[in-house]
Amino acid sequence: MIIRENIIKVPVLDKAFMFSQEGLDDLLSHALFFDLEHYVYKRPICIGVFGCCYYNKSDSALKVTQYMIEKKADASIIVKMAKNYFEKALQENKTNIVTFSGNNDFTVINYLLNKYRVKLDFDRFKKIDIQNLFKKYTGVCTGLKIIEKQFNITRENMSISGTNLAKTFSKIMKDDTYINRMPKEKIEKILLYNQQDVVSLYEILANWNKYINTENREETC
């Protein structure tokens, strides 16, 4: 298992810019920004990369945690590690989970939690889906990369297709030595891609009012 933790400094939150919602006081300080890279073939097979981050107000930084499988045996371990991560986060009052089109990720992780008989109740969290929020306030349903452009978010590397990720995780699941033959640059690219996904979720909500008119929203979306 590859375990990686990064600290990313970010500007001090400006309440005038950040997204807020009635009933969710200081939303970003109590939020987890969550994204999975996974392998699905007819049914969920494994989590390839678990990625999550949260904002630490005391030092104005994001703490990013990632787990990446290296062999088939890691498929069950990564699910248990994800459960432990979320349970610890709840104890630290991280009660919101922010995703992008999160139904896919929750479908995968819930299936695998059930498969490996690991108990975790996501109903204890308030779920916030940025794709749905963007549609609600703009009337447009679009992808994360399009929204990033609107928010002037620049990525360090090019996107990786879901097909290429699935092929990679399929090879890892079938061959325990495959990870040793993977170029280190490819592993770094996958981890950076996932990290940029979760950091983008934070940056969008932290700067929401800069780019989105919240006064003329469609409540029925």
Largest sheet: 6 strands, mixed
Gyration radius (Cα, Å) is: 17 Å
The sequence of SSEs as H and E is EEEEHEHEHHHHHH
- Overall morphology: globular
Q: CATH homologous superfamily, by name?
A: Ribonuclease H-like superfamily/Ribonuclease H
Count up the domains.
1
Annotation, overall tally of beta strands? 6
Average per-residue pLDDT, rounded, comes to 91
The CATH class designation is Alpha Beta
Number of helices: 8
Tell me the CATH architecture: 2-Layer Sandwich
CATH fold-type name = Nucleotidyltransferase, domain 5
Keywords:
single chain, 221 residues, alpha/beta, Nucleotidyltransferase, domain 5, 6-stranded mixed beta sheet, 6 strands, 42% helix, 22% strand, globular, disordered C terminus
